[in-house]
Design goal:
Rossmann fold; 33% helix; nine-stranded mixed beta sheet; 230 residues; alpha/beta; single chain; 20% strand; binds S-adenosylmethionine
Amino acid sequence: MTAPVIIGPATLYCGDAYSIRPVIGRVDVDVMDPPYDFDNSGGGEFRKARGASDKIVEEGLDQGFDHLIINPLFCSSVFVFCHNDQLPKLLPYLAGSFHRSVVLFWQKPNPSPMANRHYLADTEPFIHAWNKGSHPQGGHHDKHRFILSGSTPSKLYKHSTVKPDAVMDKIMRNANGETICDPFMGTGSTGVAAIKAGKRFYGIEHNEAHFATAVRRITAAWEATEGLAA
Ligand SMILES: C[S@@+](CC[C@H](N)C(=O)[O-])C[C@H]1O[C@@H](n2cnc3c(N)ncnc32)[C@H](O)[C@@H]1O
């Protein structure tokens, strides 16, 4: 394992989530957007205009992930993004490890036009599961299960599945605890939101280009936070 990059309260590892996550140990909340598991073929005419779908296949982000990385020994609660097709397997797994769980949704203002004999991906689920004492935080407004989000800056960060700031900021308002880990951090969206919320963050990403983007984004978020404190 190479030495982590440390930026204020963030510790970032470039490497494999399955070997590094146990080394980080227990945190309050795991927030993860792991590789999805769905049939990303087809798309016909629409596909030509949507390079993101090819990029998802190219980077193996349609191949799923090992659920065992979600471990109640590692965290008191977890947020997991997933494709709709993953819900039937993921929900029973989480029910076996956590006290309660809920499916939340965020809306994409500019969804892929590919339906592929399914529904459009204009809303995406994410699950929050928690053990006793780690229930959702936040005021009345923060307890909404649905969030209308802003744009996803995928082009800016050269990554096909960047999560919008508004979604990540909501998760930080609902997260119960001060330490957050994202084992599949991509371009660092969770880390940016964690820093803005004043939390300690641990992130893992194996793709060097995405890791470099995460370092850049989290450094900027930390510098902005420090500036506010000055
Ligand atoms: C769905 S993307 C996360 C995108 C992130 N939410 C963002 O806003 O940028 C999943 C990320 O996990 C990374 N990944 C996949 N398998 C991994 C592994 N075994 N170890 C570390 N990172 C991994 C991929 O390179 C990808 O960037």
